[in-house]
Amino acid sequence: MSNDRLAAIADRLVAARRQGARIALEGADAPADFEEGFAVQDKVVAALASPVIGWKVMAVPQGPVIFAPILQSGRVAAGGTWEVVGREPAGIELEIAFRLGRDVPPGATPAQVLDAVESARVVFELCQSRLAEPAKQPRHVMLADCIANAGLAVGPEIRGWRSENLKERAGRLLVDGKVHVEGRSADPIGALQMLEPALTPRGKRLAAGQIVITGSLIGMNWLTGRHDLDGVIDGCGEVAITLAAA
Q1: Average of per-residue pLDDT across 171-181
Q2: Predicted pLDDT of residue 136
Q3: What is the gyration radius of the CA atoms in the chain, in angstroms?
């Protein structure tokens, strides 16, 4: 693992992020494995110098649990406008998220992680890939690019969520008032609880106020142009923003 090579990859990703561009990472110019993916991600986040307000997490089939920080610089207020940088498409995911009310200690049990949750929320994950042909990229390369995260829009609290089953919740994305795509949740609580054991060995932690997003009900939806977006999850609530993309 050459630090100079990984630093050069990170520099390219930071520049692409600031320009709203997509770049090709191939051969020696790409992370070789998950360890290098995490190392590049750390360098990208350090260069962006924005507070971490949350995390996205996913389990790679036949692979590790991976994660990426969500940065304050990408937060868009619910009801606000996401002014997308650059000319590339903007990605929208509809998710159930959890906001932490207190720090989670290293080695916390799944029950302790759940106890630390202050609220559950309906959110839009805002995505921009800095990688050319993002659907074709291996997970360890996506990891270096913060798994395409660009930001977050947080909707209202899901009332009574602790007594509800959040699995298989139906949801939909409306674009300009018309249903664009529908889907269902998987296991939001399970996703939350698998994050801490992945964070701790890498010297990271779940902190009070952070928001953990748990996977899209509707897959990834790449959009261009200006649109009113409304995400609805049955029995949970909704979140809305205006998209202003190229």
Answers
A1: 98
A2: 95
A3: 17
